């Protein structure tokens, strides 16, 4: 069953996200994690794309491995940053050669030392990149969505309008930015339906393993830290083992709450952490 049919089914579905290891680390470090977690039958595995495409080659290598060896559908991230149409077409050609026809199209964050005009010369927004890829034909294209609004949008209404643009450009499904506030996720789904956006949505679930990392990522993405998570940070933040245990329980409880509210499609940001991700999958009943 292809990705879209899985996402349109009534059954719970989850996917996994990995990032390429540092250049001084062998690809086998991430291959081992992907192979181990693929045993839980994810709908697909996605692989991130470094700032300005810095890890492009490794992303292509990893998704090709997923498709050919892990026997799981693979999605490669692609960003607008500094990209020309010719460069995007070149990457698509490399992915085609590896049997990968699934893309997560993102605008991408502005890298240090690069001006906005330079970064987004050819593709100003993600919907521009989505349109370019869909015109090629034969690709399943995912896009990002933001339950609490994008950091650069002044209002949620403005952020939702950009989500609408992505859907109109041909996005086949959405993956949400990390969001620890389950009520905000519920409201987001309601707003999508009211706006007439009916493509499938996977909710991004971030394992809560390191308090400093969670605070940093929340600030970068303008996502809130709800009272329940704030209490965990205050109570267990100085004890790594206790915090990890409580953080994993937080992710499992979030998945359980959302499933009880008829939301059952999830995207797990693994952070390349095999055991922690496997525990979330098992304890939440996803696999």
Number of helices: 12
Gross CATH architecture: Alpha-Beta Barrel
Sheet with the most strands: spatial strand order: 1-2-3-4-5-6-7-8
Question: Which value, in Å, is the CA radius of gyration?
Answer: 18 Å
Ends apart, CA distance between termini: 17 Å
Number of strands: 8
Order of helices and strands: HEHEHEHEHHEHEHEHHHEH
What sort of overall outline do the alpha carbons produce when their principal axes are compared?
globular
- The name CATH uses for the topology is TIM Barrel
What is the makeup of the main sheet? 8 strands, parallel, barrel
Quote the beta fraction. Answer: 5-15%
Helical coverage, percent range: 40-55%
Determine the structural class based on helices, strands and strand pairing: alpha/beta
The CATH first-level class comes to: Alpha Beta
- The low-confidence parts are none
The overall pLDDT average reads: 93
């Amino acid at each position: 069953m292809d990705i879209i049919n899985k996402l349109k089914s009534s059954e719970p579905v989850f996917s996994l996200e990995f990032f390429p290891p540092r250049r001084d680390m062998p690809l086998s470090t991430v291959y081992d994690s992907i192979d181990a977690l693929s045993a839980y039958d994810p709908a697909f595995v996605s692989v991130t794309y470094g700032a300005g495409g810095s890890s492009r080659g490794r992303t292509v290598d990893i998704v090709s491995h997923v498709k050919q060896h892990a026997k799981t559908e693979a999605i490669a991230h692609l960003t607008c940053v500094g990209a020309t149409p010719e460069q995007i077409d070149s990457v698509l050609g490399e992915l085609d050669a590896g049997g990968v026809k699934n893309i997560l199209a993102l605008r991408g964050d502005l890298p240090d030392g690069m001006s906005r005009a330079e970064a987004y010369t050819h593709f100003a927004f993600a919907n521009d990149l989505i349109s370019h890829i869909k015109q090629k034909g034969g690709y399943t294209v995912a896009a990002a969505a933001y339950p609490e609004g994008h950091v650069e949008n002044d209002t949620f209404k403005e952020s939702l309008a950009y989500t609408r643009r992505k859907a109109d450009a041909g996005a086949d499904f959405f993956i949400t930015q990390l969001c620890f506030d389950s009520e905000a996720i519920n409201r987001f789904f309601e707003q999508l339906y009211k706006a007439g956006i009916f493509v499938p949505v996977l909710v991004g679930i971030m394992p809560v393993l390191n308090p400093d990392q969670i605070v940093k990522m929340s600030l970068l993405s303008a996502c809130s830290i709800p009272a329940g998570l704030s209490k965990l940070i205050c109570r267990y933040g100085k004890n790594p083992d206790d915090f990890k245990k409580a953080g994993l329980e937080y992710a499992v409880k979030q998945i359980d709450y959302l499933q009880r509210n008829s939301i059952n499609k999830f995207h797990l940001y693994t952070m390349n952490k095999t055991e922690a991700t496997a525990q979330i999958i098992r304890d939440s009943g996803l696999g």
